[in-house]
Each structure stands twice: as structure tokens, then as C-alpha cells.
Amino acid sequence: MKSILVSIVAAVVLVGCTPSTTKPLNKFWFQYNGQQEPGFRLWERDDNGIWTETYPSGHQSKFKEDGIDKVDGLVGDYVVKLSGDIEKTGTQDGGFRVFIPHYQKKESFLYFSQKSSGNWTDWRETNYSIIVLTTRDGGKVEDMPEEIAALLRKQGAKTAEELNTPSRRSQAAGTRAPVLSQKNARPKSFPKTTKELMFGANPTLTDKDKAFLSAAKEGKLDEVKSLLEEGVDIDCYDAYACTALFWAAANNHINTVELLIDKGAYIDAG
């Protein structure tokens, strides 16, 4: 029941937080010019949030979606490496992650981060330009290069046309939204729409607001409780209208989501 609640809240708040011109990716590729097998890297996502990275030789690495983040003003998914020959990839399983910005009709690049002394390093922008093939809503952006399609056909794909068909997420039937009380109503100061925010709103965050948003994003329940007791604005938001509730739901921090809703956090239905 808790997981269903988080899924519903995440879907609702994402509508109001993420700019409407962005779309999560389903399949993309980029040109790699490093030491480990230069050439294309094809990335494909399955319905369980597992990404497969395919090399020109046919070698594959697996990554798992671990949350949603915002880097340099871009909203996107970040994934952590699950498996892949370290001699071929040059990266450690569980110690390497990639930030994949959502599609936004302009050139964007991948970001990398690695574990150092048990902690993740800051996101580092690469020069690997993302060529989007399909988005998660079923949209097709670019055709797959023949070189990549030929390799996948060789691995057992039936036709090149099949390769360009995006996978579709299964739809959960019969799920109802939670019943919200009056305390979850829209705050007067909150932007009416994402467009209104992007073209005029300029939220001023205090240090306490920033600490609150960060704590919710990382699932630090005690810190969230403490800041609420100190009177932090539960509906404070960043430059994309992303609130503490959004960050908690996006990163699957169930207890934090429940606390924020119970305390009256606004759920933006768009």
C-alpha cells in the first residue's frame, strides 16, 4: 500500500514540477572516444528500470535506476552500474553512476559520478552528446544508425523496425488516488503552473529551506521532522517548483512522503 501511495504521489507531483517540454528517455546512444573500446554505446531501458549498455563488440553492461535528480538545471534519471566486465568498462560495479537528462529538444550531455572513500563524487558533465532514439511516452526522435541495428540483428533481433519500437510501461489498473484533506490545498504563494514559474517566478530560498529540501531528497526523516518543528515552509520550492514532497517521492522515501502529506504538504495535480 505504501509503495502504491508513493507511486501515485510521484506521478502527480512530477506533472507540476518537471517542465512539460522534457520527456524521460527510453533508448539513446552516444559516441565514445575513450580507451575502452571506442565506438558507439547504445542504451535501452526495460519496464523494470534496468538499462542495458551495448558496445560495438556486443559486450553489455547493466545499470539500475536509483532515483531522479536535477543537475545544472536539468531534471533526469540517475542509474548505478550493476554489472559489466571492469576490463572492458573501466568502472566498478556499484561504484559508478550516470545521470541521464530528460529529452528537451536541445543538445544535452551525460554526467558521471564515482564512489570515492564510500561517498559519491559530484556530477561531472562529459562531452558525450546524447542522441535520443525514443522517449518513454512512445515518441520516436531519431532513427537508429544501421551500424547499431545490424549488431542487434546479429544478436537475435528480428527486424530493424522492431528495434525502433519503444517499450511501453505496464499500466496498473484500478489504482485510485489517495483522499486528501483540506490541509493539502494549494498555498497562495505557490506558482499556478510550471509555465508561470519558468517565466517570472524567482523563489528565494533560505538556508533552512535548502536544508529541508536536501533532507527530503535524501530521506533523512528525523532532519525533516526537526526542520518542520522549527517552522520551515513545508511547501518551499526550488527554481523548477520542486518541493520536498516531490524529491521524497521521486527517490522513493516512503516514510518521508507519508510524513509530509500528514503535515499538509501540497500535492500539485498540474
From TrEMBL:
<feature type="region of interest" description="Disordered">
    <location>
        <begin position="159"/>
        <end position="189"/>
    </location>
</feature>
<dbReference type="GO" id="GO:0004842">
    <property type="term" value="F:ubiquitin-protein transferase activity"/>
</dbReference>
<dbReference type="GO" id="GO:0070531">
    <property type="term" value="C:BRCA1-A complex"/>
</dbReference>
<dbReference type="Pfam" id="PF12796">
    <property type="entry name" value="Ank_2"/>
</dbReference>
<feature type="compositionally biased region" description="Polar residues">
    <location>
        <begin position="162"/>
        <end position="173"/>
    </location>
</feature>
<keyword id="KW-0677">Repeat</keyword>
<keyword id="KW-0040">ANK repeat</keyword>
<dbReference type="GO" id="GO:0085020">
    <property type="term" value="P:protein K6-linked ubiquitination"/>
</dbReference>
<protein>
    <submittedName>
        <fullName>Uncharacterized protein</fullName>
    </submittedName>
</protein>
<dbReference type="InterPro" id="IPR036770">
    <property type="entry name" value="Ankyrin_rpt-contain_sf"/>
</dbReference>
<dbReference type="InterPro" id="IPR002110">
    <property type="entry name" value="Ankyrin_rpt"/>
</dbReference>
<dbReference type="GO" id="GO:0031436">
    <property type="term" value="C:BRCA1-BARD1 complex"/>
</dbReference>
